[in-house]
Amino acid sequence: MLALYHFGPVANSLTPLLCLLEKNLAFENRFLNSRKWEHHDPAFQKLSPEGMVPLLVHDGRVVRESTVINEYIDTVFPDLALRPQDPWLQAEMRVLTKYVDEYFCPALTVLGAHGATSFASKIDKEEMARRLERMPNEEVREKWSRVSKTGYTEDELTDARRRLKNCVARVEGQLSHNEQWLLGEFFSLADIKWYSMAALLPRAVPDLCNPEAAPALHRWLARMADRPAVKALENYRGA
Ligand SMILES: N[C@@H](CCC(=O)N[C@@H](CS)C(=O)NCC(=O)O)C(=O)O
């Protein structure tokens, strides 16, 4: 039995959701409403001591980290493979997913978290202090502490946009060699991982991610949006 705990089809939660849907796997949908702090429930924190999503439970065993979860799913359920057989292509795929985890996601998180400032700054100060105490992960605690006050500085936001510009250039370059999917004709976990962040770019940085500034990325986003599994993501937004 598979169960996925997630915040809905966005960012890191989108990564395993899309993988499960692409592979037509049945799973229990454990949507957690982050605005209601459902990921702070003691029952969930027993599974995730860091209080973080996404998290997969397979036959009672917990698998963490979105990229690792997807590799695990593809190993355990090899039908409709999402990793190429060729070891070199597989290495290329892992370089692409590693880049998202180490560079793209942290840059996008700055803009995403800053966008939550209006929500977080309205939370009663004592309530927020109690919430912060219940955040075991130091980076997450620091993020929420900042966005409950003034958010990120102009310099930090500018630097995040600079890094996102590099991400757009990176994927634009990749797609100029391989117009269909990131590895060419083979649709892979790299497309899934990149889409989980890149789907947010047109709204986050419209000046960088538009048909003129990044034509290959724009076309790839449209091809992704056309996939039945991507369309099905809409059903996982929670009530
Ligand atoms: N490297 C982890 C990152 C997971 C992560 O950052 N999760 C965020 C949501 S995207 C989270 O659970 N945040 C908890 C919070 O903001 O309170 C992964 O890829 O799974």
Q: How is this structure best summarized?
A:
It contains twelve helices and four strands. It has 239 residues and is α+β, with helices and mostly antiparallel strands.
Could you explain the architecture of this structure?
- Strands 2-1-3-4 form a four-stranded mixed β-sheet, with helices on one face.
- It has two domains: 2-81, Glutaredoxin (3-Layer(aba) Sandwich); 87-227, Glutathione S-transferase Yfyf (Class Pi), Chain A, domain 2, CATH 1.20.1050.
- α1 runs antiparallel to α9 (189-198), α4 (87-115) runs antiparallel to α8 and α4 (87-115) packs parallel to α9.
- α1 (11-22) links the parallel β1 (2-6) and β2.
- It is globular and about 55 Å long.
- The protein has helices spanning 11-22, 42-47, 66-76, 87-115, 117-120, 125-133, 138-147, 154-177, 189-198, 201-204, 215-225, 228-232, and strands spanning 2-6, 28-31, 55-58, 61-64.
- 56% of the residues lie in helices and 7% in strands.
- The chain contains twelve helices and four strands; from the N terminus they run βαβαββαααααααααα.
- The longest helix is centred in the middle third of the chain and has 29 residues, at 87-115.
- Bound molecules: glutathione.
- Residues 7, 11-13, 52-54, 65-67, 101, 140 line the site of glutathione.
